[in-house]
Amino acid sequence: MSKVSSELAAKLKQSTEFNAEACYHCGTCTALCPMGYEVLPRKLFREAMLGLEEKVKARIPEIYQCLLCRMCEENCPQDVHIAENVRYLRNLINKEEMNLIK
Ligand code: SF4
Ligand code: SF4
To answer: Number of folded domains in the chain?
Structure first.
């Protein structure tokens, strides 16, 4: 079972930069990603919002390989700022906040 970080969940909830709460998992973003990501962004963001730190850590390679090209968010019906969310998670990892890297 993945370790739950209430600190991570609270941080994302309070953030004015990270906006994935409106995502309803339609899959449009996945279909348009040139990297062929099956989990970015919808599963990643859900896991992060739930504070599933170990699952987010397991996706660090994809978080850094994301091109930030925004193809995914062009047709997002919920206006989720996907690339900015990925960038936000990178910043958390870079700062070693939320114990995302140990
Ligand atoms: S396109 Fe938007 S609403 Fe649909 S799964 Fe992706 S992020 Fe969520
Ligand atoms: S920003 Fe990242 S997740 Fe979105 S389409 Fe580009 S490579 Fe894929």
So the answer is: 1
